[in-house]
Amino acid sequence: MIVPRGAHGARAASPVLLLLLGAITIAPVLLLSLRAVASAWHYPEILPTQGEADTVLLALRSPALWGALGRSLALAAATGVIGTAFGFVAGRALVGAPRGVRQVATAAAFLPVVAPPIALGVGIQVLAIRAGVGGSVTGVLLAHVVPAAGYLTLYFLGVLSAYDLSMEEGARTLGASGRQTFMRITVPALKARWLEALTLGALVSWGQLALTLLVGGGAVETLPVALLSFVRAGDDRLAAAAAIVLSLPPALAFGVIQRGARQTGASA
Questions:
Q1: Fold topology of 56-267
Q2: Which residues contact 182 (CB under 8 A, 6 or more apart)?
Q3: CA distance 252 to 107
Q4: In this predicted model, what pLDDT tens digit does every residue of 178-200 receive, in sequence order?
Q5: Where are the alpha helices (DSSP H) in the chain?
Q6: N or C: which end of the chain has fewer CB within 10 A?
Q7: How far apart are CA 266 and CA 256, in angstroms?
Q8: Of the candidates 184, 178, 203, the residue with the CA atom closest to the CA atom of residue 92
Q9: What is the arithmetic mean of pLDDT over 87-104?
Q10: Separation between Cα atoms, residue 133 and residue 129, nearest integer Å
């Protein structure tokens, strides 16, 4: 077997590139962890001179941090559920729609995904104020649902385009009702996809800052908003702790999506 010239060099460079990528990924987390532990870290010191593990516990005991965390979790969960329901219904309708209608609707669903959050937020802010939900959790939830619904519509459009409808047609032929078909055929067949959609919808809400500030008007404090306020107040230790907490759910969600992808590949 003839090995192409340069193949050995590429194989030798792969471990180095992986180590470099790992270092770039882990370095910010390590710096945040050090800052959360350190009670003092003055310029131009490379490492903190004072650090205690108890300072992390003190930071995590902040009522503002826990209140913002609980609010973010509730908004993310509600956004995931509502966005998944809307995305599935819209995706199901678009799969059977004429090509022209599907293209226009897909472009409309794609718009809130790619639009700058500040531009999208200004439009949603006007609607929220006119609807009387500006500066409330309800208004922020509706603002989060807009990009999540667009993203999940595109997601389910791809999923359902490859979905075999013959199973549902067979169940309906045998006398199953629409509800029975959905609960016994559609839901089990798309079990992994439901979990992925809920996770993706929750992630869209989890990191929202611009939409939360514009629609919430500063009255709805989520974890990203609290993190920004900690940074502005100069509390680097609490800001570092909040940043670490903010990064944990996306890491867990990535594991959930990867596990679902492996299961789908294995079943295929």
A1: MetI-like fold (1.10.3720)
A2: none
A3: 31
A4: 888 888 888 888 888 898 899 99
A5: 7-37, 54-60, 63-95, 99-114, 117-131, 137-161, 166-173, 178-181, 187-189, 191-206, 210-216, 223-232, 236-267
A6: N
A7: 15
A8: 178
A9: 89
A10: 6
- Domain residue extents for the chain: 56-267
Compute CA distances 236 → 70, 72, 243, whole Å.
Answer: 21, 21, 10
What gap in Å lies between CA 250 and CA 62, rounded to an integer?
A: 22
- Whether the predicted pLDDT of 221 surpasses 80: yes
The token duo for 95 is: 């799969």
Provide, rounded to the nearest whole percent, the portion of the chain with pLDDT above 90. 21
Structure confidence at residue 242 as a pLDDT band (50, 70, 90): confident
Tell me if 202 sits within 8 A of 223, measured CB to CB. Answer: no
Q: Band of the pLDDT at 268, cuts 50, 70, 90?
A: very low
Q: Which two tokens stand for residue 190?
A: 């798309």
The secondary structure of residue 183, as a DSSP letter, is I
